[in-house]
Design a protein that fits this description.
Chain lengths: 970, 181
């Protein structure tokens, strides 16, 4: 070991700086001190000192170019660590002019990091970019394109657009790729400026280089999101590209962890999901490749699961296909049942996937009820929130109470406003849609307002008031008034709370004003007193005060109208006095109105504030017909008749010349006329859409045609289910399950599903009888993990009758193992699939698509990495040695990488060799092979270099931050 | 798709690399955002999932030795639910709720969703790429070659989209540049 150390030192001495050669002493010092800084404050001090010295030195005349690069990177550091370095921006801009490519690129990088795209200095760079786009060196062109993506704004697009378009046909593929992305950026910034060039993206999709093709998918995705219908013709192309990618037709360099170009696959799947959404014909072209993917995807690696998840999303988006749905459901349950390692990520994806699939078939959630509840009770907040999202999607009137209660509990437990607002709005939405009773609705709303009042949309408050006013639309006045008095009761109780949000106070004031005295339970004086308390006890704003005074006014009016005498309470009087002197004219006016009202007789007061009339339409007489008499009289007395504006203007030019002022007016009128021409045509057009939307208040106004399409699609989805309605839902599940075992499954699609279903239904019946013994084993097995009673109850309330069915099933199966095959029992057959039970089946034909059972034929799922590791084990024996060299005997190796796949003693070298080794075994022609052989040696040297240089620079591994040296890949 | 930022922050909360896409935050905004996110991620245990929501971002993070790699993505899910339901209580309760349900489904479909696992693997690809270039990449490598780490990222991500995933393609321009100088 000593020997190795000295070798390392010598190597480092020899190459003068080793791995970090070419940088100045000062830069190394800066990095060293930042790296060893113990706290943010210390780091800030270092940077401030650095900025001071840079400010002086960067402005010196004739700074060598290399040195300037050094300065610029130090500026980048300063900005990255949160300090202003604007004094150096201009030097970064200057550096973009440099002839040397590394300097130029560094200059561009610094500028893109420093400057916003509307910064004044940008104008100085346009010229450089234009020049560089014409360069013969394609790397210079690439640098300019990269910078253009970040720096060109809407106004400067025309300055470079023609050049960028020309570069789309550049012989170098990297240039084409970057040109495509630059054009994409321009499209993002200002779609209009490149609208005539959009066809270029289609062309680039057929580029001979897969990199360009892959990049082109990004702009196409955006375009398709905006306008699906114009790209339907590409469905077949996308599907065939995806097929080719999945069949490993792309260069091996795109492979990632044995998956062929997974990131391109994912992008294609996203696009296909958009194109196939609600389009049966387009979806049909995707089915084949999707089922291929389901078959091929490896579930042992993260990336395999990522592609699988994307497939599930795609299946849930396109026109539903039974087989694919089954595959998606199967994959989802794999996610949810993920084994401990990394399971939280997979569970998260599983919950999300489930949320998508239940839109198509709400029944599948039942199977995973316990997994869902586990996630709901998990301490991990992310997972919990995702589960709430799922619950939100599966809420119906039968489970709304449980779900909303859970949500409110969660709402109370968190203190992040962003989350709170989100959860609160969901609670409100669910309550509005599914409320089982008025009482419940009001109580729920009270809770939401109490705990997240200021975060709730004010529209929600208005809806609540409207609801209380209108009742529930049934012709039962009794129920409505009961609702109101219960609301009043609850509000009077809540007013005792110390702090209430303003929006909630508004609602309370309004309701108390309208209905506080309606049922005669409370006296007017009591309510008025409470209302006055509100304004005193709670620091309220003008809006609440206005609500309060209006409420008092209403109560007074009702009292007067009923012929009772209103006594002015002292606190009410003082409140009134306060408002009369308020700065707000609105409050003042309300106060005076109240005072005026108090002087009215009972009939007038009743007319001003009729009882419970908040829902009555206020009729407005637009013609002002009640003034006709008055006008008539005035005209008779010699007043000028009123002329409409148009007549007045028309006449002014002809008859009145008397004053210069009027002549001026006439000249105005002339100008006006010129502009007014289009008016008549536009006026009748505008109001129409408004009227039509306002009448359809029940329907969510479909803004785009897209929604409508989807509605149709979702209705169509019901089709297949309805057709199998006679078979029953459970039966259907059964049939589906059986189908897994069918050898015909893997054959190409387009089998009429209805026929298949009925046959399966029959088969399932027989199967159901045969499999009773299995039922019992299944049930007893299920009982074993001892799911707590509470969880089961929760499951029952969330997932409806199904859970109780499970319990019933359990008892039934135990009591009578050969009872008649009820549907309920069969649903358990579905779940009984497990490695244990599958064995006593009479050897079902192996099914390619079935992930559920670890079929022995597909056994070689041993991680190739692991295997290779074993092979290379002797080589990696160097690992520990080298590790100790690196850390200099430091024992503080407490922090191991989270994502370490290997034991800590195995060095990264062996791992990387392992992965690359598999590449080379995969394809011996793979060009990387010689490189690896070369790499094998220097890797260790590299490390020694690094260590030695670090020591030279003065960064000691035993310093404050030993992890600086830790191999990132563990 | 939309990647909004890529951040490298160590366990002490010190930023090692920061790149923002599609929006330019001021220094103070950046400081605040980075601080909040790092605090949130550091508070999480290894068993919890690698995704966190923060404001309107969804953050996918992964830890290598003491360095956190964080990628912020558009949190579309959040926008999805910003009130698609109208006031449907009352009158034809059942009917309207069905419509609301269907319409919400449509909204979910239309909007691009985040594939968190893919982002997680993208991070790993980035680390593997750096590892191939630097050899046994460590925090100090990134610190000493900040610009190169940025160049690699520039090759991989443009306009917040993943554009290149072939390691040799990513590294080719950087190697050529080194050779030339």
């Amino acid at each position: 070991m000593e020997q190795l150390k000295t070798i390392g030192r010598e190597l480092a001495m020899g190459s003068q700086g080793g791995a970090w050669a070419g940088q100045s002493k000062e830069f190394l010092d800066l990095v060293k001190s930042i790296g060893e800084a113990r706290s943010k404050a210390e780091e800030d001090r270092i940077i401030l000192r650095e900025i001071e010295s840079l400010r002086r030195r960067i402005a010196e005349p004739d700074v060598p170019r290399r040195r300037m690069k050094d300065y610029i990177i130090r500026l980048v550091y300063a900005e990255m660590l949160g300090h202003d370095a604007s004094f150096g921006y201009i030097h970064a801009v200057k550096m973009t002019h440099d002839d040397s490519l590394p300097l130029k690129r560094t200059g561009y990088l610094a500028v893109t990091l420093f400057l916003n795209d509307d910064h004044d200095l940008i104008i100085l760079i346009i010229n450089t970019i234009q020049k560089d786009l014409r360069s013969d060196n394609y790397l210079v062109v690439c640098a300019a394109l990269t910078a253009a993506c970040k720096l060109i704004n809407e106004e400067t697009i025309p300055a470079v657009l023609p050049q960028v378009v020309d570069l789309l046909a550049h012989p170098k593929e990297t240039v084409r790729k970057k040109a495509v992305m630059t054009l994409h950026r321009f499209y993002q910034r200002s779609p209009a400026s490149v609208s005539h060039l959009i066809s270029n993206f289609r062309k680039r999709l057929c580029d001979s280089d897969p990199g360009v093709m892959g990049a082109t998918l990004c702009p196409l995705f955006d375009l398709i999101t905006e306008d699906v219908n114009s790209y339907k013709d590409l469905v077949a192309s996308f599907a065939s590209i995806l097929k080719q990618v999945a069949e490993r037709k792309l260069p091996k360099t795109y492979d990632y962890h044995q998956m062929p170009a997974p990131f391109i696959q994912i992008k294609l799947l996203k696009i296909l999901a958009l194109l196939g959404s609600g389009d049966k014909q387009a979806s049909g072209q995707v089915y084949n490749v999707l089922s291929d993917l389901f078959r091929k995807c490896e579930t042992s690696s993260n990336i395999g699961n990522a592609v699988l998840y994307e497939c599930i999303c795609c299946v849930s988006s396109i026109y539903p296909n039974v087989k694919l749905m089954d595959a998606a459901i199967e994959a989802t349950s794999k996610f949810l049942k993920a084994c401990p390692s990394d399971s939280h990520n997979l569970k998260y994806m599983g919950i999300d996937a489930l949320g998508r699939l239940i839109k198509i078939n709400p029944d599948i959630a039942e199977e995973h009820q316990l997994a869902v509840i586990d996630c709901l009770e998990d301490p991990d907040d992310t997972l919990k929130r995702k589960t709430f999202e799922l619950l939100y999607k599966m809420t119906k009137s039968s489970n709304v109470e449980v779900i909303v209660e859970r949500m409110i509990d969660y709402l109370i437990s968190i203190d992040d406003n962003h989350y709170k607002a989100d959860i609160a709005s969901r609670c409100v939405e669910l309550a509005e849609q599914f409320a089982p009773s008025n009482q419940w609705f009001i109580q729920t709303m009270n809770k939401v307002f109490e705990h997240a009042g200021d975060l709730v949309n004010s529209r929600v408050a208005h809806n609540l008031m409207r609801l209380i006013a209108e009742g529930f639309g049934e012709d039962d006045e009794g129920a409505d008034s009961q609702l109101r008095s219960s609301a009043v009761d609850s509000y009077l109780r809540i007013l005792g709370e110390p702090k209430l949000p303003s929006l909630f106070l508004q609602v309370i004031c309004w309701v108390l004003g309208e209905y506080g005295t309606a049922d005669g339970k409370y006296t007017a004086a009591y309510i008025i007193g409470k209302l006055c308390d509100v304004t005193e006890a709670h620091l309220c704003n003008d809006t609440v005060k206005a609500y309060a005074i209006s409420a008092i006014m209403k109560i007074c009016a009702f009292e007067i109208a009923a012929g009772r005498k209103v006594e002015m309470l002292p606190e009410c009087q003082s409140f009134l006095d306060e408002l009369s002197a308020s700065h707000s004219t609105d409050l003042q006016q309300r106060a005076y109105e109240l005072q005026a009202l108090l002087c009215l007789d009972s009939q007038a007061a009743g007319n001003v504030m009729p009882l419970d009339a908040s829902c009555e339409d206020v009729e407005i007489d637009k013609d002002l017909s009640f003034l006709i008499n008055f006008v008539q009289q005035s005209i008779e007395k010699g007043a000028n008749p009123y002329l409409p504006e148009s007549e007045r203007l028309g006449m002014s030019g002809v008859s009145n010349f008397s004053s210069p002022y009027q002549q001026e007016a006439s000249s105005h009128s002339l100008r006006f006329e010129a502009y007014e021409l289009p008016k008549p045509s536009s006026i009748p057009v505008i109001p129409q859409p408004f009227i039509s939307t306002s009448t359809t208040d029940l329907v969510l106004v479909p803004d785009t045609t897209y929604y409508r399409e989807n509605n149709q699609a979702s209705k169509l989805i019901v089709g297949p289910e309805a057709s199998s309605a006679d078979a029953g839902i459970k039966l259907r599940l059964d049939g589906v399950q059986k189908k897994w075992g069918k050898p015909t499954y893997s054959s190409s699609s387009s089998i009429t599903t209805s026929v298949e279903k009925t046959t399966n239904g029959v088969v399932a019946h027989q199967d159901g009888i045969r499999s009773h013994s299995r039922d019992t084993t299944y049930d007893s097995r299920r009982q074993q993990p001892e799911v707590s009673v509470e969880k089961q109850r929760l499951a029952a309330s969330l997932f409806g009758a199904s859970a109780s069915k499970t319990e019933k099933k359990a008892t039934m199966a135990q009591k009578a193992p050969k009872g008649n095959s009820t549907n309920a029992e069969k649903s358990s057959v579905v779940r009984s699939v497990s490695p244990g039970t599958s064995k006593d089946k009479t050897a079902p034909p192996p099914d390619l698509l079935d992930f559920g059972e670890p079929v022995p034929t597909s056994a070689p799922t041993i991680d190739p990495f692991k295997e290779l590791e074993g092979l290379i084990e002797p080589a990696s024996a160097l690992g520990p040695l080298y590790n100790t060299v690196k850390t200099g005997g430091d024992k503080a190796q407490d922090l191991m990488a989270l994502h370490m796949d290997t034991p800590p003693s195995v060095s990264r070298t062996s791992l990387s060799l392992a992965s690359e080794g598999t590449y080379s075994t995969d394809k011996s022609s793979y060009t990387e092979k010689p490189m690896i052989a070369v790499k094998k040696g220097p890797n260790l040297q590299d490390a020694l270099h690094k260590d030695a240089t670090a020591r030279q620079v003065g960064v000691t591994p035993t310093g404050n931050n030993p992890n600086l040296f830790r191999d990132l890949l563990g | 798709m939309g990647i909004r930022f890529v951040l490298l922050v160590n366990k002490q909360g010190q930023t090692r690399l920061a790149q923002y896409y599609a929006e330019h935050l001021t220094l103070d905004e950046r400081r605040a955002l980075e601080g909040e996110i790092v605090r949130k991620c550091l508070a999480r245990t290894e068993q919890q999932c690698s995704f966190v929501e923060h404001r309107n971002y969804k953050i996918v993070y992964r830890r290598y030795a003491s360095l956190f790699f964080l990628v912020g993505v558009d949190n579309d899910e959040q926008m999805e639910y910003t009130y698609c339901g109208s006031f449907t209580h009352g009158r034809s309760k059942q009917f309207s709720s069905v419509i609301a349900y269907v319409a919400m489904g449509a909204v979910v479909d239309v909007i691009a969703y985040v594939n968190e696992l893919a982002i997680l693997e993208f991070i790993h690809l980035f680390v593997e790429t750096m590892d191939r270039h630097f050899g046994n990449v460590c925090e100090l490598d990134i610190m000493f070659h900040l610009e190169k780490a940025h160049f690699m990222l520039e090759e991989m991500v443009m306009n917040g989209c993943i554009v290149e995933t072939s390691k040799s393609n990513i590294l080719a321009p950087i190697q050529l540049m080194e050779k030339a100088s």
